[in-house]
Design goal:
The chain has 324 residues and is mostly helical. Helices cover 69% and strands 0% of the residues.
Length: 324
């Protein structure tokens, strides 16, 4: 598939981490007391706090994916319209994106701006710096894009032949490039820290089997959708591989949807787990139709990939509901 511009390929950086499975008796404690640095570095409580924080970072990154992609898509449309100012419909085709706000704190009062002490001083400083820098660039991009919108609304391109518009487009694209680059580095760090904490949290958790099943399935689905996206214009070449991948996902869905629900019932998580695998089933139905059309057309459209990405985002939401 032709990417909007080269760095659009980085727009989906979705990492999956398990959240706290700690005892409910912890809920009655004051958040500051729970966050006490006196907790053992290897304790489940400490690991859970770390994961709760890294989940906020992941949520922030995920919430920006579609928005950044739409911003980049609009720069192409605006650039094309500026080159053809006599086309009165050119600017009318531009639909400005809406940013869906993500939750900046969780139920235990942890905020993304204040990394938890359980991370340790070095990692606390790292996230404090990186999240601040990322947010500053994100706000700069929004400010520049607002200027571009105002420029178009006032039709100032009629005065300078689009000069300021082209300059703003270049600036916005450059900022988005930096955001993608920083996000990849940030997510790599999150993955390292969360994986280590997750080992501690899941060690004796009665929900371990369910969490591992969902995480494994999401990883395989993500790889499958990426395969389709990377070969969208030449689907015929990977059709056999895609069909094999789809068959494997069907087997995994049936197997994991049928896990023993005894422990999930005890934790009042049976409904959440069922919702996840119902969503997985619906994704498979959508994918089956998409692959059939791709086989007939020899390619997948951008809307095909976006639809599968949207289904995948729904799985992430259901996974997070399970872990709340």
């Amino acid at each position: 598939m032709k990417k909007t511009i080269i760095y659009i390929s980085c727009c989906v950086v979705l990492l999956l981490t398990a959240v706290s499975c700690k005892d409910k008796k912890k809920k009655e404690k004051d958040p500051q007391q729970t966050a006490s640095a006196s907790a053992s570095p290897g304790s489940a409580d400490t690991a859970s706090r770390v994961i709760e924080y890294t989940n906020l970072v992941v949520d922030m990154a995920n919430s920006h994916n579609a928005y950044l992609k739409d911003i980049l898509g609009n720069t192409e449309k605006i650039e094309s319209a500026l080159k053809n100012p006599d086309d009165k419909f050119g600017f009318l085709r531009i639909i400005h994106p809406h940013l869906t706000k993500f939750t900046v704190n969780n139920m235990n009062g942890i905020t993304i701006e204040n990394p938890v002490p359980e991370l340790g001083k070095e990692n606390q400083a790292y996230f404090k710096t990186q999240v601040t820098q990322y947010n500053a660039k994100f706000e700069k991009m929004n400010t520049d894009y607002k200027q571009l919108r105002d420029y178009l609304t006032a039709q100032d391109y009629k005065d300078d032949k689009g000069a300021k518009g082209y300059a703003l487009i270049d600036t916005i694209r450059g900022t988005v490039q930096k955001l993608y680059t920083e996000k990849i580095v940030l997510m790599k760090k999150v993955n390292e820290i969360a994986d280590a904490a997750e080992i501690v949290v899941l060690k004796d958790s009665p929900l371990k089997e369910y969490i591992i099943a969902m995480k494994t399935d999401m990883k395989n689905i993500r790889n499958f959708v990426d395969l389709l996206s990377d070969n969208a214009n030449s689907y015929t070449k990977i059709s056999a591989q895609a069909q094999a991948g789809f068959a494997a996902l069907e087997i995994a869905q049936a197997k994991n949807a049928g896990l023993n629900m005894e422990n999930a019932k005890k934790a009042n998580k049976e409904g959440n787990y069922k919702n996840f695998y119902d969503s997985f089933h619906n994704l498979l139905l959508h994918t089956k139709k998409t692959l059939r059309n791709a086989g007939e057309n020899g390619r997948l459209s951008s809307s095909d990939i976006e639809g599968l990405d949207s289904d995948y985002d729904g799985l992430i939401r259901n996974y997070n509901y399970f872990n709340q």
